[in-house]
Hints:
Layout: H1 4-30, E1 32-33, E2 36-37, E3 46-48, E4 56-59, E5 65-69, E6 72-77, E7 80-85, E8 89-95, E9 101-106, E10 110-114, E11 117-121, E12 136-138, E13 144-150, E14 153-159, E15 164-167, E16 178-184, E17 190-195, E18 202-207, E19 210-213, E20 227-229, E21 235-239, E22 251-256, E23 259-262, E24 278-279, E25 285-291, E26 294-300, E27 305-307, E28 318-323, E29 329-333, E30 338-341
Antiparallel strand pairs: 1-2, 3-30, 4-5, 5-6, 6-7, 8-9, 9-10, 10-11, 12-13, 13-14, 14-15, 16-17, 17-18, 18-19, 20-21, 21-22, 22-23, 24-25, 25-26, 26-27, 28-29, 29-30
Amino acid sequence: xxxxxxxxxxxxxxxxxxxxxxxxxxxxxxxxxxxxxxxxxxxxxxxxxxxxxxxxxxxxxxxxxxxxxxxxxxxxxxxxxxxxxxxxxxxxxxxxxxxxxxxxxxxxxxxxxxxxxxxxxxxxxxxxxxxxxxxxxxxxxxxxxxxxxxxxxxxxxxxxxxxxxxxxxxxxxxxxxxxxxxxxxxxxxxxxxxxxxxxxxxxxxxxxxxxxxxxxxxxxxxxxxxxxxxxxxxxxxxxxxxxxxxxxxxxxxxxxxxxxxxxxxxxxxxxxxxxxxxxxxxxxxxxxxxxxxxxxxxxxxxxxxxxxxxxxxxxxxxxxxxxxxxxxxxxxxxxxxxxxxxx
Length: 343
């Protein structure tokens, strides 16, 4: 038989064990991944800029949102909204740590909007290889990484706040001049995708000025228009065969454990020219597609696929998909504005 003190200790231990079991069951029930619910939500929880074409979206952790629609730049923060009319089409946006926004344009060069107004960097005043800036990203240290390139012209631009540097196949490990996408991790590691010649697309990782080709330096993929970096460092990339006359099907790959692996899509195909993917804060891969004439979203959670119900979105096509700091999914369309799906 137990003494009173031993009995009290046993009751205490049983109580602690009971609490642990409740905690485990609760965590399993909540199904949190990186502190976000594991359940995929296809319900549309918000709409913005209805009737507008959406070309690019940039969110930050402070609630600032910038949206590009043709030559119109929209700023939204809660109930506060502004818009600006530019002289050139907006191709990409990136919000800097100081709350300013950098703008890639079709013909106007690289723009910078601060409280003082706009500053423009072009081929004439900043030596840009060309004034077509398709991609802009901001590193944690504030450096601006952007593309200024064409076939056998230019490459990857870097602006440190004082001067510009341009990396090309002549002065860097780049195997081609064209950069078709840029991603930057929270630790400041830069990833880029090169294109320009079929069969020679590569993904490069740049860390502390050290380069690594993630694949065959002579060429890893047929063509790459889009890739996405997950919080754990995994990479999702679409090998795009839209330029092929052989009618080959696009393939989705994942870079994990230092190697590329084809993801089984179970009949789902990242179809269409400029096929895009985006990884959310849980590491799920979101991929736009069509079901008949209706746009749908496919989501891969690492094991299985889920697809948005028919008629979730109107007749249209997706132009951009992004995720914000709260893991909401922002889907831009050609003529119906933005759909927001809270996760």
